[in-house]
Specification:
By secondary structure, the chain is an all-alpha fold. It has a domain of 71 residues. Helices cover 77% and strands 0% of the residues. The protein has four helices and no strands. Helix 1 packs antiparallel against helix 2. The radius of gyration is 16 Å and the shape is elongated.
């Protein structure tokens, strides 16, 4: 078994945290865009009171995604543009899944 140098170990940890938060942000974004918002504005306004947890949870945990994405970009040596795009990917329903897959592909090339 080979030992990782400290830089690679830090990058591995940052990637794991980013992957977890990217998948979480994607799921929460899908719930927000396709369940919470339509229910609130279009479908059943009375039902929305039971779904307010979606927007609250998404709002409180999105900053954790931002920190995880920023930390990964910092450890991976990404450009400012790549960092901003990776952070913004958490705002669209499917984009965080795409960003997570691309980051994992790039991460595997760095090994």
């Amino acid at each position: 078994m080979t030992e990782l140098n400290p830089r690679q170990a830090a990058l591995n940890g940052a990637m794991i945290r980013f992957r977890i938060m990217a998948i979480y942000a994607g799921v929460m974004s899908i719930l927000l865009w396709f369940v919470s918002i339509p229910t609130h504005y279009f479908i059943f306004k009375d039902l929305y009171e039971y779904l307010t947890w979606i927007s609250l949870l998404h709002g409180f945990t999105y900053p954790i995604y931002v920190f995880a994405a920023f930390h990964y970009c910092l450890k991976a040596g990404k450009s400012f543009k790549s960092t901003v795009l990776l952070i913004l990917a958490g705002t669209l329903p499917i984009a965080s899944f795409v960003a997570e897959r691309r980051a994992l592909r790039e991460f595997n090339l760095l090994k």
